[in-house]
Design brief:
The complex is a heterodimer of chains A (443) and B (441). With 443 residues, chain A is an alpha/beta fold. Chain A is built from 18 helices and 14 strands. Chain A has 3 domains: 103 residues, Orthogonal Bundle (Fumarate Reductase Iron-sulfur Protein, Chain B, domain 2); 164 residues, FAD/NAD(P)-binding domain; 123 residues, FAD/NAD(P)-binding domain. In chain B, the strands form 6 sheets. Chain B has an 8-stranded parallel barrel with strand order 3-4-7-8-9-10-15-16, surrounded by 8 helices. In chain B, strands 5-6-14-11 form a 4-stranded antiparallel beta sheet, with no helix packed on it. Classes of the chains: A alpha/beta (443), B alpha/beta (441). At the A-B interface, helix 2 of A face helix 11 of B.
């Protein structure tokens, strides 16, 4: 039997997707916060993309000033609760905690952060209100973390903000992409609501921007535009058999897991192709949905995987197996997937070489391609002379997040090529300041 | 196996660990249980005219994740009839003839003192302890610390007790006094066979920020209580030492105050206590802590080659002197072990903001290990105290040990500064940043 059963009820789902960073209670938070050393020029702060004053909020938690703690968090990062849960803290703040150098367990910063933030959200205690209106309107395309972070900051500065979102929920991949055992959709939506109640930005759902006419209208009606469009569907590998039933992109698979986990039929034997964090998530989720055998197949070695070690560890703990130095040649099957043909590889002086004659087949009934998301090129092409980098990401000034078109700013995955919620939160906030500088100077 | 037998003015006990007069010795049931667990002696909850107590009697200070690092109480002496207590003392002594049972007493008139001393002796008490220390409630009625704060009265009452007592008399002192040796000398003069100290310290444990009333709270009001627990040990140690060094005291000491483990006990004894008494730690963890205390003491004595308690009792007393005798030529400087440093930089900010600006941060890209600026370091220890890594910052001796000059020597030889702008000032010429540098930028 596999580690997990196929969930059939909401209760089963709670078991399958048990939170890896559950909320602390007051006692846990008290004890954990007591351990913080209050480092000078603390490494955890430097490791945080949003630069939260972590020792300060931990001290505030310890002295029973939860509102102060939450304010410290939200002043730097509008996704205080979500980031506390989904941030790869092991390689960020907690990874930088000096206790690591003493072989002492680092402070559970993420959970403490969520503890303080969630307390405010549950109480609906408002920390902010929009700044006095300055009469300028800003349009934001996409309602992911970068966009919402930017919207909050703009509202604080007195701007009117309209967000245009193609889908029916806010927060982009925070809803559609974050692993369900890291954060629940309820948690995400509650924090977005909490922000919206305070900042009162407008989100127009199911309003995709698809035409040059729409773009022209936005340019006419708004003082500046933020492109927070993220990335697109899973990039095709152009492998034989990629179109077979049972072969799905990781982004699409995870979206289904997030939106309709009980309706989703996961294969009995699943092969996930890729070596990044998304591959680990997709593999973990397959296992937690009751797949009997889940293999992550990566064309290079274990050490070369882009996935964080703890993410691989997490997948392993759900029963996932690793298969390394195996490059996929074809997805096998007639109508439905029945296996994958691989060839063994080796690293020859940095170059990946197929080993001739080492082809082998592995049976499966589901293949998940976790080989990266495509860029939103169709959309980006609607904006004339918008410069992109070699990867197809939008080029921006690293301080102001202004694009080659002065009226356009961009932040999040569309700029960084796919990173964490915390990066999007940081970039969105910086972009808002960039927008403010731009609009103020062009008065 | 070292001999742990303790002797306080002739009162013998199988080990030096006694329960202090307090709630853990309120009944024969508790004392029996304690002796069975391994305690060597017990000073019974103070006997006298039984009282009526309040509900809500204790307050505590928690420090970070540690509970009850400081503790206080507003409980009075026993609220049980004397006859019940006497019967239980007798029963305990029947089961544990070799253990020390001392009766703590607090009454007012000479007649009452005579009567109660005889009563407890008849019940089999091995000694009596006169409670001249309780700093709450009883002192308002002219007893407890009200006596301990008046050496003449203390001496008189001790004399009354000595008129009839055939067992050793211990006088328990209050620390709520400027000079502890005054009542200690008075006790000796009054004929006491031993002193015990310290009783609790007058205190308020904190204030309820919403109801504006201190803890512990009794129906919206509070009153000062007696402070004890781990936090008071340094105060107790100093007072024990003061009595141990005073020529006019010269009677055995029972050390009390902040004792929770064998180390605390050994410290009290090194500073002159013949045995120790424990209360708060038992109220926190129960009688079972005695197992750790006994094992730790034995291990320590084995390691040091001490065969019996007198081998180390008072061993640190002669190493406590007055400030004027300390060697001003002794010079230590902090050293940071870069291999064990975890880069918290608490030493930097402590020295920078709280001491002598003698620690430098590494340059950009040079890691996080700070460096000592030796010429600025005054050897104050602060960095080594704030450092969370054991033995990462050590104080290294820099003088060659050839010169010993104290303040007394300075005064005698005219080297001591005598004017406001004296160039002989210790900090003269010591580098200090200009005030404006504190503005940053």
């Amino acid at each position: 039997m596999a580690e997990y059963q196929t969930p059939t009820t909401e209760k089963d789902l709670e078991t399958s997707f048990e939170q890896i960073k559950p909320y602390m209670n007051a006692t846990m938070a008290y004890y954990e916060s007591s351990r913080c050393l209050f480092c000078y020029d603390a490494p955890c702060v430097k490791a945080c993309p949003t630069g939260i004053d972590i020792p300060l909020f931990i001290r505030q938690i310890h002295t029973g000033n939860l509102e102060g703690a939450a304010r410290t968090i939200y002043d730097s990062n509008y996704f205080g609760n979500i980031c506390g849960k989904v941030c790869p803290t092991e390689v960020l703040c907690e990874g930088a905690c000096v206790y690591n150098l003493q072989d002492v367990k680092p402070i559970e910063i993420g959970r403490l952060q969520s503890y303080a933030a969630a307390d405010m959200i549950r109480q609906g205690r408002k920390l902010y209100e929009p700044g006095p209106t300055n009469g300028y309107h800003i349009a934001i395309i996409g309602a992911g973390p970068a966009s919402i972070s930017c919207a909050c900051e703009l509202r604080l500065l007195g701007y009117e903000v309209d967000i245009f979102e193609a889908k029916s929920h806010p927060s982009g991949l925070a809803i559609y992409g974050c692993a369900p055992y890291k954060v629940t959709n309820e948690d995400v939506l509650e924090e977005i609501n909490y922000l919206q109640e305070q900042f009162q930005f407008r989100v127009h759902y199911k309003q995709p921007v698809k035409t040059k006419e729409q773009i022209a209208a936005l340019e006419r009606d708004y003082a500046a535009i933020l492109l927070g469009v993220g990335l697109g569907p899973t990039q095709a590998l152009n492998l034989e058999g990629e179109g077979l039933a049972g072969c799905i992109g990781a982004t699409e698979f995870i979206e289904q897991v997030k939106l309709m986990p009980l309706a989703l039929e996961v294969g009995r034997r699943v092969i996930v192709i890729g070596g990044g964090n998304t591959a680990m998530d997709a593999a973990s989720e397959s296992a937690r949905l009751g797949a009997e055998a889940v293999t992550v197949a990566y064309r290079r070695s274990k050490e070369e995987m882009r996935a964080y070690a703890f993410e691989y560890g997490l997948a392993r703990s759900a029963g996932v197996m690793g298969l390394f130095n195996a490059a996929p040649l074809a997805i096998l099957g007639e109508e439905k997937v029945r296996g994958v043909r691989f060839i063994k590889t080796q690293n020859e002086g940095g170059k990946l070489k197929h080993i001739p004659g080492s082809e082998f087949e592995m049976a499966c009934d589901m293949v998940i391609l976790a080989t990266g998301q495509a860029k939103q090129s169709a959309f980006l092409n609607l904006i004339d002379s918008l410069e992109k980098d070699g990867r197809g990401c939008i080029k921006v000034n690293p301080q102001s997040f202004q694009t080659s078109r002065p009226k356009y700013f961009a932040a999040g995955d569309a700029v960084n090529g796919g990173a964490e919620v915390v990066n999007a939160a940081a970039e969105g906030k910086m972009a808002a300041r960039g927008i403010d500088k731009y609009v103020s100077s062009s008065k | 196996m070292p001999n742990l037998t303790a002797n306080l003015a002739g009162i013998l006990s199988p080990n030096p660990f006694w329960l202090a007069s307090a709630p853990p010795t309120n009944s024969g049931y508790q004392v029996m249980k304690a002796f069975e667990t391994g305690w060597g002696g017990a000073v019974w909850k103070t006997l006298g005219i039984p009282v009526v107590n309040t509900s809500s009697r204790y307050g505590a200070i928690n420090y970070r994740s540690s509970r009850m690092v400081g503790f206080n109480n507003i409980e009075l002496i026993t609220d049980r009839p004397l006859a019940d207590n006497l019967r239980e003392i007798e029963e305990v002594k029947k089961y544990f003839p070799d253990h020390a049972v001392v009766a703590s007493l607090m009454v007012e008139s000479r007649k009452e003192w005579h009567q109660i001393v005889k009563d407890v002796e008849n019940a089999g008490a091995d000694g009596v302890e006169l409670n001249f220390g309780c700093p709450h409630g009883m002192c308002e009625r002219g007893m407890g610390s009200a006596v301990g704060q008046e050496p003449a009265v203390l001496q008189t009452i001790t004399g009354w007790v000595k008129e009839v007592a055939t067992v050793p008399v211990i006088v328990k002192l209050t620390p709520n006094i400027t000079d502890i040796t005054e009542p200690a000398v008075a006790a000796a003069k009054g004929g006491a066979d031993a002193i015990s100290l310290i009783n609790t310290i007058q205190s308020l444990m904190g204030v309820d920020l919403d109801r504006f009333v201190p803890y512990p709270t009794v129906d919206g009001k509070s009153t000062n209580g007696g402070y004890c627990g781990p936090a008071v040990k340094p105060i107790a140690l100093n007072m024990v030492k003061n009595c141990a060094q005073h020529q006019g005291v010269n009677i055995p000491i029972s050390g009390i105050g902040g004792i929770e483990n064998w180390r605390d006990a050994v410290e009290h004894m090194l500073l002159g206590a013949n045995n120790v008494q424990v209360c708060t730690a038992v109220m926190h963890y129960g009688f079972g802590i005695i197992r750790e205390m006994l094992a730790g003491l034995e291990e320590y004595m084995n390691e040091k080659g001490f065969g019996q308690l007198p081998d180390f009792i008072g061993k640190a007393v002669s190493n406590v002197t007055t400030w004027e005798n300390l060697n001003l030529k002794y010079k230590v400087i902090a050293a940071i072990n870069a291999d064990t440093c975890i880069g918290c930089q608490l030493c930097y900010t402590a020295c920078e903001d709280g001491a002598h600006q003698a620690i430098a941060l590494p340059g950009n890209g040079q890691g996080r290990v700070p460096a000592i600026i030796e010429e600025n370091c005054v050897g104050c220890n602060l960095c080594s105290l704030v450092c969370p890594v054991e033995n990462c910052i050590t104080m290294v001796r820099k003088d060659d040990g050839s010169t010993h000059e104290s303040w007394k020597d300075y005064m005698d030889s005219g080297k001591a500064p005598t004017e406001f702008n004296d160039k002989r000032a210790g900090g003269h010429g010591h580098w200090i940043p200009e005030p404006k540098a504190g503005l940053g930028g």
